[in-house]
Amino acid sequence: MKQLEYAFMAKLAIHIKEQLRKGVKKPYKTIIDVSFGDPHKAGVKPLTFARQVIAACTYPKLMNSDKLPLDAKQRAQWLLDRCPGQSVGSYTATAGIPETVHKISAFITRRDGGAPSDPKNIFITAGSQWALMNILNVLVNKQASPRTGVLTPAPGHDKAVLSIVGMGGETIPYYLTEEQGWALQVEELQRALDSAQGVCKPVALYVINPGNPAGHVQSRKSIQEVIRFVSEKRLFLLADEVYQDCVQGENTEFVSYKRVLNEMGPPFSETVELASFHSVSKSVMGECGLRCGYVELVNVDPAVMKHIFTLFSKGSCSPVLGQIALDVMINPPQPGDPSYTLYNQETQHIRDMLIQNAKRVYEVVNSLPGLSCQPVDGGAFAFPRVFLPPKAIKKAKDLGMEPDTFYSVRLLEEAGVFVRPGCGYKQKKDTYHIRFCIMTPRDMMDELLGRLTSFHRKFMMDFA
Amino acid sequence: MSQQAVNGVQCRAKVLTLDNMNPYVKRVEYAVRGPIVQRAVQLEKELKEGIKKPFTEVIKANIGDAHAMGQKPITFLRQVLALCAYPELLEDNKFPEDAKKRAQRILDACGGHSIGAYSASQGIECIRQDVSRYIEKRDGGIPSNPDNIYLSTGASDAIVTMLKLMVCGEGRDRTGVMISIPQYPLYSAALAELGAVQISYYLDEDKCWSLDVKELRRALNEARQHCNPRVLCIINPGNPTGQVQSRQCIEDVIRFAKEEHLFLMADEVYQDNVYAEGCKFHSFKKVLFEMGPEYSSTVEMASFHSTSKCYMGECGFRGGYMEVINMDPEVKAQLTKLVSVRLCPPVPGQALLDLVVNPPQPDEPSYTTFVKERTAVLAALAEKARLTEQVFNTVPGITCNPVQGAMYTFPRITLPQKAIDKAKEEGKVPDMFYCMKLLEEEGICLVPGSGFGQKEGTFHFRMTILPPTEKLKVVLQKIREFHIRFTQEFS
């Protein structure tokens, strides 16, 4: 149902773009499309070093070019030497270029304060969603009665939900607490688990940290509580951490589930079964179109691992250019390298952009009566709440639309801002939200907030 | 499973175990990357560590990966892709104008002019349009609608998506899918994972692996008793067998599909790889439409293509597409929804596909080199196909059908009874036993025929014809010697 609503809005956006192209007069010249978490589409530039390495790997004659810095050429050569036939057109090993897999394990250990990471448990995958779908495929027992259940966050993006349902499983939503910055409360996990009694058999808990669409970043304490919960209730833990690079909040720190698990020591560190996901799509790289990520599996039964490997193997391997981007992401230029200054500049610029955008969104949205926004401490989206007047809700229902879809459609038509309605993310009943990407150039965000402000004021007046 | 004590320490049972995991996943096998390949990788490691072996390198003739075996990428393709990856190179005069033009066009179709942006989940629109035009040109003008084109992550992604879409029902109503024996094990793996019923139809080894409709009928009628047959899959040119179906055969299959109300899935990824004289690739779509409206407006079909094979061999880019014909609009809406869950196919693969369907034209600067390179690749493959068949047929105990197309040979091997018994002792399937021994003694990695399916009591292996000609000669010689030795050892 939600899919259809997005499809309908996407069509509308295309229609409006066409009208603008033909010169039809509108209060705006272009559509600001923030409906997807797609930084490049929004105008954020790719990282130069990554693209230089990819270009040199693709067309090795560039190794002789003076247009590329030495470290880019060296990295490209290093990678090509590890591709069969020295070509990015060859398949790689199922789990990815082995040396890159080793680097990922080193990256994880560095990130996690020394927590050991076994390369044998790491698979490079064609995007984090692909990996998640395959792990869910192992977890969701189609023949089981009652059906397999997976606890999923509400609000939470819908891809995992669609996969679980498509596989014959059930989703058990647990609600994040909006008034507390979208915090995850263990009592709510318990309530959700209790609600599954007699309905389905819960086998796993899916968390998104930093969140999507909610922009919360879990504290260490919160993560410990979740780990204790899954340990006690015997649930497999799926930790979607693709936004770990996007942390905007002051005094906010991303700490990985793996790290906390390791710090908690036995029995947890040796028994809790965990899959952690990361991706090149949502880091400051923003390389969504290259389709590459990885999953680290912890404490998984070795016999089951064999089957996971076979399942991954029938997809052959991840796109190789994506693997190259991943190699750069987890092992960027270091101080002293020719490309370090520029790389650092570019990534810092994007991080500053995110911090500023998050601040601006929080300030502007909260200044508007009828809108409120929790701090966007992390992630790539803002998820403000819209307090729709009864007249607007009624109008929406008359039109056969969800109220926040109605608001979003109006926002698109009248202000040329393309956001996603909150109904696509499983929000609490009778609450309404919109989601928009904040990984955009600063001027685009300013423009967006300007248009949103004018539109919202008018909307609230019209439906007073 | 209750807690077990191990060395006096209480051991907690796992949450996810063989007992409670998805049972369908346990049935999935994929021989092309299976146990023999894992052993080959292990041997490579040992060689690197300096451990002495009867061979100095492991030759991986198990996987259809041309570049891994030394085939060179096509220059033009890589130039455009490099320009797309790092558009600053558009200022570099070392790149030809036609490459720059195509790169610019592709970038203009990408969000933010970057191949790092998501594309529409069905694929970049102008590329789908180019694919349509390519199909129209290939098929003598028969119209192709870009709306019916779905770009995918290699052909495999599209094949699995279609199967997902069509597999349903319970018990006797469970969807049955017809696939050849032997087959490319992606099909059997996908069917196992989906819990679909695999309906095997046997290709005729004695008639050059041709397909007989009588055999299709036999398989179908038998299957009707325990499942609901809905799909017929055919790989043409074939994998592992390499047979190129005759036009008559394709017509017969289409007629059969219409009579029996089956959805046709035509896997045509090797369509440029046709070597044997008298053999020609006929696309299912073209034949369908040439059979007239009675067929062309009713038979439901999907054709698949990829950038991994043919003359490109760009497996690592994961590019491909499918064209759906006569699909019910409501089902198509479901298909569109289904592909959106995986977001979009890799954009570099989409860009590559665009170049494959839109190659340099005679009046463009890159044309001459492009044609030269493409011709050389295909000619080398044709020569290797011929050489392979020739050499294998000189070996007593090996019979090899002509490699009419694709990239593989699937010779039949006669194994002495003693070898079959020894294999059983070791808990191995006989052709796996044979291939493992070959790997350990000669460092040559092939895939046993059991990984693809074969008639009961027959044994085969699949070898790629991809190693460079000189190396291939050595490989063929080594296998020849091995086979003779093996036969003697177990006589």
Provide an overview of this structure.
The complex is a heterodimer of chains A (464) and B (491). Chain A is α/β, with parallel strands linked by helices. Chain A has two domains: 2-44 and 344-462, Aspartate Aminotransferase, domain 1 (Alpha-Beta Complex), CATH 3.90.1150.10; 93-329, Type I PLP-dependent aspartate aminotransferase-like (Major domain) (Aspartate Aminotransferase, domain 2, 3-Layer(aba) Sandwich), CATH 3.40.640.10. In chain A, 46% of the residues lie in helices and 12% in strands. Chain A has helices at residues 2-22, 39-42, 48-58, 70-81, 98-111, 128-139, 159-166, 186-195, 220-233, 257-264, 268-271, 302-313, 320-330, 340-367, 390-398, 403-415, 442-462, and strands spanning 32-33, 122-125, 148-154, 170-175, 201-208, 236-240, 274-279, 293-298, 371-372, 381-382, 385-386, 417-418, 420-421, 434-437. In chain A, the strands form four sheets. A seven-stranded mixed beta sheet of chain A has the order 2-8-7-6-5-3-4, sandwiched between helices. Chain A has a three-stranded antiparallel beta sheet with strand order 10-14-13. Chain A has a two-stranded parallel ribbon with strand order 1-12. In chain A, β3 (148-154), α7 and β4 form a beta-alpha-beta unit. The longest helix of chain A has 28 residues, at 340-367. Chain A is globular and about 65 Å long. The two termini of chain A are 29 Å apart. Chain B contains 17 helices and 16 strands. Chain B has two domains: 23-70 and 371-490, Aspartate Aminotransferase, domain 1, CATH 3.90.1150; 103-357, Type I PLP-dependent aspartate aminotransferase-like (Major domain) (Aspartate Aminotransferase, domain 2, 3-Layer(aba) Sandwich), CATH 3.40.640.10. Chain B is α/β, with parallel strands linked by helices. A seven-stranded mixed beta sheet of chain B has the order 4-10-9-8-7-5-6, sandwiched between helices. In chain B, strands 11, 12, 13, 15 and 16 form a five-stranded antiparallel beta sheet that branches. In chain B, strands 1-2 form a two-stranded antiparallel sheet. The longest helix of chain B is centred in the C-terminal third of the chain and has 26 residues, at 367-392.
